[in-house]
Write a structure and sequence with these properties.
Blueprint: H1 20-25, H2 31-38, H3 42-51, E1 61-65, H4 73-79, E2 84-89, H5 92-99, E3 109-113, E4 126-132, H6 140-153, E5 154-165, H7 169-182, H8 198-207, E6 211-218, E7 222-228
Parallel strand pairs: 1-2, 1-4, 2-3, 4-5
Antiparallel strand pairs: 5-7, 6-7
Amino acid sequence: MSRRRMDTQQIGWPGNTEEMSAFFDQRVEGYEEHMAEHIEDFDAFYASVADQLPIAWQAPHILDLGIGTGLELDPILERFPNARVTGIDLSREMLEHLADKPRPWIGQLRLLCRSFLDAPLGESVYDAVVSVMALHHWIPDVKLGLYRRIHAALKPGGLFINADYVETEDESSRRLAAFSAEGAGDRHLRHIDLPLTVETELELMHDAGFTSERVAFQRARCATLVGATSETSTLG
């Protein structure tokens, strides 16, 4: 397979026809370096995901949507060495890269290569559902449906942690308008970036049934957002 390194010219503008899995399969080499260079406060951003999980859980069962090469796993498994993680991702190359990492916790992972838009997530299965830099490719209606499925997949008192790109109202609206104008399917699997505002993301969490929605970490173009399945959850 011909591989391309990540580069700043691939911005995922609406109209891009490159299929999502092919995009990341071809760019697995250099992906982690690219993220480290382009995410403001990279270490703090990824650590912010693990920091939201209550230490009292000890051995949580976690679903990771768009797990990729698992950049978020080191801080999670350091905090919870007995955690079990189910990871879903479209990119087989990314999953193989993750499976080859020399980590003591590799045997605690269950990896599935498919789209989480239609993968069965189950009901009341997980203590937490996390997603890092993976959900910014779809319009609000599609995300709302996914967030409702995530809510159902969580145990009572469970947490949904979404760490992702965010945008200003103007830029988000511009991208969504361009995507709408091209007439593509809403549940597409192409590499198109449609980041929303923090406010819109929190509203979607609320509409999906989550409570205590909050911003745990935020920089100019990324944020970690947390929602609970009930008011009795311990956040952070």
